[in-house]
Structure to design on (683 residues):
């Protein structure tokens, strides 16, 4: 059923379509609409779930950990400071191998209070063991949540997944979203029935003191799970497409076959980048775009394949790893190095704190790359 | 006479806590768990944050309790229990008891926010704080449950702890929870009765168990029960219940003992000058009077 809704509501409906049985969340702008919509859906009986209105994001994730460990499908949503407050328990959820799904609205980090789009929040939680998806539009938000449960709950994966959506550009912008009916969703995503859970009839202790004898192997198993997840994400994206007509993968290439300059983008900037590619091509520039939809696990193989013929690789980061460069930029270069590809690369930091990255800005970025020294980081549009 | 016999028999025979756990000699916290589980049985899920009990149950892949145990982050005992309890209810399980089991540090200090949240929502959990009056897992640092006058590694002899133990019980009563009880491992019948009662009540139940720690208190491990008894006989840690706002003191010592002997048995109070001992005595007596008044007015 096609309807018009903002990205926050798409996240709420994504959780509902996934038949979550437990939600614990705490409000923060611009995620508040997710919390409000879900509490409404639960109160109206449309969603048969328990909604615990916790006193903090830290407790939101802790409560999800408890419920999920007891064998119940859980969901939460947050943004910015809230995600940072969760840090310790994000690690906990991942190492406990709990397939929790979280919607994070990408918002800047204070001080300098800012409620606007910026990926510093989720990028700073990159190493928590969560899989990370960056949505381009509201349909992507909705579909990604349903797929996230399917991927995360796979017995060979069992890792939590974070679905990111840009503040305001998605969270508060209305777009057409095609909702999946519940029966079809249930066929795609069966009820959650984990092999290991807190069960008085089959008692186990989880997470006890772990010596150097075992800890290493637990981490190795997460490495294995992330490797499996790469395949599952592609597989589930295809299966989803076969059933619902919308196909997804870890990356998405746009006009890169003959492209000399390839933009590498994520989130809503990817959408603008594709429009920019069309416009720049009209000016005779051979430009393409590679969207990184999944950042963890990192799609190294797909990236190498997509970039191997490029002359210039221009990475746009809406984040900055203090003291180095954009996080995506570093990792893209790592992938190229793995394949012995010595291509000129450009790290472009843009759109921090919600500054607009328009087609004009992307044009400026491409021109900057054409005229600047490669293998360096540039802050685009910075006022000096 | 008859009544006493009955009380004895009220302690269930079954041992849920097994030998082979890692507690120190004379550990009050291990006895606390033993009695609590005797009362609560096996249809239970327990979550344990960072504290001595995170070690006592045994390292991976062992467990001394043979019930579902979930180890959680230091400040999350109440929130994780809320999640388990509400989650189970969402799938129609109304029978399994969910208990958070935390130390005083994880309760009075870093976990008080999550505890307050659970209590305010009246989530259906039993929250036990086993109180050994310091951070013992990390090597005896003060907590806000450390009593006035005590030595810890962060309140060394010259700068022993000054300031009163946080009155968390009153804070919990102020949340309007349906049940609060204090308990001491020297009174197992009383303690088990309280757990059995808590198990039947819906909502947040808070049980504050006094649990001596010979390692941290520099006391003789053989004297743990004795200390846990004296603390009640001196009115330092009165045994009482608050049920829906109504106070009931369970044990009123006929002649309250002076606290000198109690203090003298613990190295952590060795340095205390006489005037401090007098100050402690005076203040504990005042606090007891206040509790009596609470029972009188809200009994
Ligand atoms: C966030 C965090 N900070 C600090 C610690 C270190 N830590 C582990 S146990 C503990 C003290 C626990 O004290 P208490 O709750 O009284 O339990 P006890 O050890 O006395 O049984 C501390 C400080 C931790 N695990 N997590
Ligand atoms: Mg302690």
């Amino acid at each position: 059923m096609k309807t018009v809704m903002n990205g926050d509501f798409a996240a709420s409906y994504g959780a509902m379509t996934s038949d979550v049985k437990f939600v614990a969340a705490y409000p923060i702008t611009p995620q508040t609409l997710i919390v409000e919509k879900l509490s409404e859906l639960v109160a109206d009986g449309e969603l048969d779930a328990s909604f615990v209105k916790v006193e903090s994001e830290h407790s939101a994730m802790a409560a999800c950990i408890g419920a999920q460990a007891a064998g119940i499908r859980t969901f939460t949503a947050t943004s910015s400071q809230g995600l940072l407050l969760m840090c310790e328990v994000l690690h906990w959820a991942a190492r406990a191998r709990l397939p929790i799904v979280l919607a994070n609205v990408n918002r800047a980090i204070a001080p300098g209070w800012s409620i606007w789009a910026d990926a510093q929040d989720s990028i700073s939680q990159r190493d928590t063991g969560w899989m990370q998806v960056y949505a381009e539009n509201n349909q992507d938000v909705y579909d990604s949540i349903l797929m996230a449960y399917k991927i995360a709950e796979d017995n060979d994966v069992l890792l939590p997944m974070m679905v990111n959506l840009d503040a305001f550009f998605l969270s508060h912008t209305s777009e057409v979203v095609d909702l999946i009916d519940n029966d079809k969703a249930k066929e795609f995503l069966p009820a959650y029935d984990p092999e290991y859970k807190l069960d008085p009839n089959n008692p186990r202790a989880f997470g006890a003191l772990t010596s150097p004898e075992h800890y290493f192997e637990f981490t190795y198993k997460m490495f294995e799970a992330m490797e499996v997840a790469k395949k599952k994400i592609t597989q589930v994206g295809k299966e989803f497409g076969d059933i619902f007509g919308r196909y997804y993968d870890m990356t998405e290439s746009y006009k890169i076959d003959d492209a000399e300059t390839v933009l590498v983008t994520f989130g809503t900037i990817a959408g603008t980048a594709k429009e920019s590619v069309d416009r720049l091509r009209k000016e005779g520039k051979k430009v393409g775009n590679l969207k990184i939809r999944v950042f963890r696990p990192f799609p190294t193989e797909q990236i190498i394949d997509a970039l191997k013929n490029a002359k210039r690789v221009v990475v746009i980061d809406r984040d900055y790893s203090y003291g180095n460069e954009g996080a995506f930029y570093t990792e893209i270069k790592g992938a190229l190095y793995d394949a012995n590809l010595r291509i000129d690369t450009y790290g472009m930091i843009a759109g921090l704190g919600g500054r607009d990255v328009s087609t004009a800005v992307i044009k400026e970025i491409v021109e900057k790359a054409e005229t600047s020294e490669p293998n360096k980081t540039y802050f685009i549009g910075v006022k000096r | 006479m008859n009544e006493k016999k009955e009380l004895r028999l009220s302690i269930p025979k079954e041992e849920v806590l097994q030998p082979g756990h890692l507690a120190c000699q004379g550990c009050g916290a291990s006895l606390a768990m033993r009695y609590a589980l005797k009362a609560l049985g096996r249809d239970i899920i327990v979550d344990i944050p960072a504290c001595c009990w995170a070690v006592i149950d045994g390292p991976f892949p062992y467990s001394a309790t043979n019930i579902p145990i979930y180890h959680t982050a230091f400040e999350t005992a109440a929130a994780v229990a809320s999640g388990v309890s509400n989650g189970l209810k969402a799938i129609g399980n109304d029978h399994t008891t969910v208990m958070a089991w935390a130390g005083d540090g994880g309760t009075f200090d870093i976990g008080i926010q999550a505890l307050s949240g659970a209590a305010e929502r009246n989530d259906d959990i039993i929250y036990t704080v086993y109180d050994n009056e310091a951070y013992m897992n990390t090597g005896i640092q003060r907590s806000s449950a450390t009593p006035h006058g005590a030595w810890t590694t962060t309140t060394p002899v010259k700068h022993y702890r000054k300031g009163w133990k946080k009155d968390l019980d009153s804070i919990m009563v102020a949340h309007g929870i349906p049940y609060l009880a204090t308990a001491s491992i020297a009174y197992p019948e009383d303690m088990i009765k309280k757990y059995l009662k808590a198990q039947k009540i819906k909502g947040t139940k808070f049980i504050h168990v006094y649990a001596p720690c010979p390692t941290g208190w520099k006391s003789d491990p053989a004297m743990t029960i004795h200390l846990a008894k004296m603390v009640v006989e001196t009115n330092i840690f009165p045994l009482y219940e608050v049920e829906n706002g109504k106070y009931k003191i369970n044990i009123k010592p006929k002649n309250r003992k002076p606290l000198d002997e109690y203090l003298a048995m613990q190295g952590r109070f060795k340095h205390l000058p006489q005037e401090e001992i007098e100050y402690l005595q005076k203040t504990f007596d005042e606090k007891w009077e206040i509790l009596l008044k609470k029972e009188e007015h809200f009994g």
Remarks:
- Residues B 50-52, 74, 102-106, 132, 135-138, 143 surround thiamine diphosphate (ligand 1) (CB under 6 Å).
